[in-house]
């Protein structure tokens, strides 16, 4: 009897067609979307083509991973968002206030055209791509998760370290990589070592906590997508909002979200939720039994 693959033929063909169209269409993105002038030389033209092909390849990889392992995106993203319940409630309250003020001034509110314009603006922002996708010096998820999770964790596990030890050890390397901001903080803090130490200590503490969580996600799920989407979401949201002077419901939402996060941390990262079609193997590395 033929085994269920989990993806219909229609979905597979549709996804492949979309990736083929994307591979060609994105070559025209620099002039049509980013509004860049025509390339002045053949060298610039080839560089643009190379960048577009790289972006298309990354997007295709993410789409195929999402289709084949949608749990590795939906469950970790939902779990991580619980930590930001207070921040999300605050953003909703600010959005409602903004729309109310705009309506009182006779504005039209948020139209589809404005929404699409904002998406194009973000997509054409090089700094956004640097912060959320490519450059590790700005805590971007892709390169950091590849190096500090996908490369380091298998090495440490195969080196004989236990999963909980790896979760504590790997973030140390992750935090040390952020010490490159030391002199930058030193100049911004008026060359005060005390203020610099406080700022760097706060950043290192945050990177250790997040690094532990990201390592936990990779070991439990066996998917790089899990810490990747969590990293991108945290970069977008920033630090969680604990309270707001405007409304106490923000603090209530934060506490409720943290309780939900701790309650669902292990149930939503059960290895069998993510690897149920791999010949009954709980995860790709075999270290997720937690015995």
Secondary-structure map:
Blueprint: H1 9-25, H2 29-32, H3 42-68, H4 71-83, H5 85-104, H6 112-123, H7 126-134, H8 141-158, H9 163-176, H10 182-188, H11 193-221, H12 225-237, H13 249-264, H14 271-274
Helix pairs in contact: 1-3, 4-12, 4-13, 5-13, 8-9, 8-11, 8-12, 9-11, 10-11, 11-12
Structure characterization notes:
The chain is mainly alpha-helical and 291 residues long. The chain is 70% helix and 0% strand. It contains 14 helices and no strands. The protein has helices spanning 9-25, 29-32, 42-68, 71-83, 85-104, 112-123, 126-134, 141-158, 163-176, 182-188, 193-221, 225-237, 249-264, 271-274. The longest helix has 29 residues, at 193-221. The radius of gyration is 22 Å and the shape is globular.
List keywords for this structure.
291 residues, 14 helices
Order of helices and strands: HHHHHHHHHHHHHH
| Tally of separate helices | 14
Share of helix among residues? 55-70%
What are the segments in which pLDDT stays under 50 over at least 5 consecutive residues?
135-139
The percentage of residues in β strands lies in under 5%
The number of E-state strands comes to 0
The structure class reads: mainly alpha
Mean pLDDT: 77
| Amino-to-carboxy terminus distance | 35 Å
Query: Which sheet architecture does the biggest sheet show?
Result: none
Radius of gyration from the alpha-carbon trace, in angstroms: 22 Å
Question: Rough shape?
Answer: globular
Quick summary of this structure?
The protein has 291 residues and is mostly helical. It contains 14 helices and no strands.
């Amino acid at each position: 009897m033929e085994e269920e693959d989990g993806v219909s033929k229609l979905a597979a063909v549709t996804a492949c067609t979309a990736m083929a169209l994307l591979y060609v269409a994105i070559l025209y993105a620099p002039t049509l979307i980013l509004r860049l002038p025509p390339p002045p030389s053949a060298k610039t033209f080839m560089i643009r083509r190379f960048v577009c092909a790289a972006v298309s390849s990354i997007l295709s990889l993410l789409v195929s991973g999402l289709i084949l392992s949608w749990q590795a995106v939906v469950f970790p993203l939902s779990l991580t968002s619980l930590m930001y319940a207070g921040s999300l409630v605050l953003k909703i309250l600010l959005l409602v206030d903004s729309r109310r003020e705009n309506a009182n001034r006779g504005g039209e509110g948020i139209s589809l055209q404005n929404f699409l314009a904002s998406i194009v603006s973000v997509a054409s922002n090089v700094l956004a791509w640097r912060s959320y996708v490519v450059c590790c010096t700005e805590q971007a998820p892709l390169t950091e998760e590849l190096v500090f999770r996908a490369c380091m964790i298998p090495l440490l596990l195969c080196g004989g370290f236990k999963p909980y030890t790896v979760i504590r050890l790997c973030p140390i390397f992750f935090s040390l990589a952020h010490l490159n901001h030391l002199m930058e903080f030193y100049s911004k803090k008026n060359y005060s070592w005390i203020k610099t130490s406080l700022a760097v200590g706060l950043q290192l503490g945050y990177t250790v906590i997040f690094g532990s969580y990201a390592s936990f996600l990779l070991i439990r799920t066996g998917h790089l997508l899990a810490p990747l989407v969590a990293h991108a979401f945290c970069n977008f949201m920033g630090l969680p909002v604990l309270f707001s002077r405007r409304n106490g419901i923000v603090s209530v939402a934060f506490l409720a979200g943290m309780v939900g996060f701790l309650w669902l941390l292990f149930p939503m990262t059960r290895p069998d939720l993510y690897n149920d079609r791999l010949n009954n193997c709980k995860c790709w590395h075999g270290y997720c039994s937690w015995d």
